[in-house]
């Protein structure tokens, strides 16, 4: 791996901060020293290390990197001092000087308040079932304040002393999942301790809360695509639990898990059959069918698709994520990259070939780049050249 830019270093630093804290928690748990909270080991401190500030203020990242570099130099000269008797004094002096003069970023900038569940991992796996179940709960319990699209402009919200935030903005991605979980479980309070948002731990189960988080992310993706025509935050293809009813011998193995393969998902119905040949060495082709569909003809003896499945939940979850209503979804195609992130969408009435302009999730700098002539090859090249890698609440993004 070549570290060409400060962003690469920041990513490395953030991963290191995360791995360090997770490992620490695992060791505590393994030694039986961690308490349990909501079924997982509890973070024992009121704060955690966070890289969030580094993303906003690059000078903090630079300062931390240089401080770490100098500390490594100090350690090296200390080690030399131990081994090299004649130069010991000089080397010791050098280490002391380095340690003394190294400027570390303000501690406050690298710490964020933490909850017992800060490092909890969602057990729901961003599954279609969780998203659909989350939607039912959200409509009953949350939409009254937060509005169906998450923007929070309901009459109830507008009359509240503290307005709910826009859940369709990048907010959910800036928070750690475990910290969202905590807030929904125990509510939120203002400085004087008055409740600003109610807690739900008494009336909803832990799994309900994780499902709600999955739904809110899917919903924010759909709202974003309706508003700006793109996913402004990365969103994963939901985990689909249905089995392939028809599959090529190799794909049952390849599709489960989906990761590591680019997937083209075609939503087909009797009226919008996937008539074009789908066999393509660059992609795994999956047909998500609504009712009975006719399948594309196989090519030269090879099966034209890798998987055919029926799943109401998948259909509903993809409707939420793509911002297309369930009845208009047939004919839509979606592409994921090898890491499972949804990257491109083609609507039913768009009969052009795939091109780079179908990418809906990319770095802001290249968002408007449009290479319509390059076809699927240039789309895949562009997608692979810009993998999704950024962080959430100072936590590195994963698709689950
Ligand atoms: C009575 C109105 C109300 C209801 C009902 C409600 N919320 Fe909230 N919610 C709020 C308000 C107000 C805030 C902002 C609170 C603050 O900043 O102190 C908020 C904040 C949030 C946040 C942002 C947390 C953060 O990290 O800043 C999330 C996520 C959230 N609510 C999810 C939910 C979910 C999920 C439900 C349903 C289970 C729900 N809310 C029900 C009013 C409500």
Automatic annotation (TrEMBL):
User: In the UniProt record, does the keyword Membrane occur?
Assistant: yes
* UniProt cross-references to Pfam families, sorted A to Z: Cytochrome_CBB3 (PF13442)
State which residue ranges cross the membrane: 63-84
Q: Does the keyword Membrane apply?
A: yes
- Alphabetical UniProt keywords: Heme, Iron, Membrane, Metal-binding, Transmembrane, Transmembrane helix
- According to the entry, every stretch annotated as the Cytochrome c domain falls at 129-220
Identification of the protein by name: Cytochrome c
